[in-house]
Design goal:
This protein is an alpha/beta fold. The chain contains 16 helices and 18 strands. It has a single domain, classed as TIM Barrel, CATH 3.20.20.140. The chain starts with a helix and ends in a 5-residue tail after the last strand.
Amino acid sequence: MKNLYWFIIWFQVSCTPGGITEVNEYDLVIENVGLIDGTGSALQEKASLYVRDGKIALITKIPLRHVVPKITIDGTGKFIIPGLIEAHAHPSEIDVDSVARKDFPHSFKTMIHYGVTSAVLLGSANGGYALMKELQESSNNGSMVAPRIHYSSPILTIEGGHPVKMYPSDKWIDGQTIYYLKETTPISSIIREAKANRAIGMKIVVEDGPMPPFGDRMADDLVKKVVEEAHAAEVPVYAHVSDMEEVKICVAAGVDNLVHFTCVRINWDTDRETIEKMRNSETSWVTTLMLLKSLVYYRLHPEWLERPEITRVYNRSYIEGLKSPAMDVQGKNILKGMAGSDTLSLEAVVTPVVQDLMKVQEMGVNVVLGTDVGGDRFILPGLSMHEEMELMQMGGMEPLHIIRMATFNGAKMLGIDKEIGTLEEGKFADFVLLAKNPLQDITNTLTIEKVFKGGKEQARLK
């Protein structure tokens, strides 16, 4: 009876307001913050986000009582967005040697510094599986400051095709960092190798460009065979394209993801059916408008390299090496060949491209932000994602949609939107804390105060 008496007293006290309550342990709590979840939903004001074991455990507008967080951050007047997903990068400047990588100014550190918490590596002259797996493991175990690494197969192309024609290197080794397709016979074994090495998909280059002298496109039968064999093995296909004819070849073959919207010109009177097919097959399309800015306008405007976001972060000698009178000539020649005039402004060139992108998106195609970092020296890792977002806003797109393209849409393309890409309970706690509201101006995504990956604050450059 005595024990029963004390049990009744304990039960009454524990259920009384202000009495004993359950103590919830969290690794991180961010209180009273403006939360933009990446789904396209409106801003959640004065939200509190709770992290446990690397994942978002709870999002609420009513702060919990009697919690025991290891770290608490007052988010009053601040904003959080999901970590950015760079959907088109190349590991061309990364060395296998961890010591060399640690000192290299171009590395993944700048991606983390600018809030990129996931990166999709789509082949390069350094794109062999050994390096890709080593980079991924180094990121996963924390021995390297880097985004989450997702990598494709080495590039499948034809002899004399892109990218070897434009970017010659002795590191292009057939069967290791590139595959030259001459016939369909070896395709099945190439795909088996990709699956065995945990590649996110096959990377094929269909285009004949991107600039004169043009080569040959990959033959339709090769494209179809790659897609057929890849889908039989449940492996997606990423295709590099540069015009609408190549888009049609890929869509007809059933390619899963298109890389490059830049330079593709849609005739809405004749091409709408192809876009509808993309929507129906759930094809994703990666943007890479930064190529317009890098290949042309950075070359015409070397003063743009003096923005603080560049001078305070990137290696000075590298940036100075980009300034040359020859760059101006290159930029004008490319612009004239592309647009018929060498005097058009960046806004004049970008706006119609963004307007087409908006129509494609309105029709239901999953449009994903990527910059082709590593594809041109002026595309700077990390900052380039913010510049891509700035170009979208310049062309008329609303920040809420831009943020979704830079976060959720990338995760959807990768098929891991249940794990990353938005700020929702149960997902990995990858997010960026900002000082200003990016929905008022997308350039406010650069007001970064902290970057978190898996709930752990990442080291940023000083």
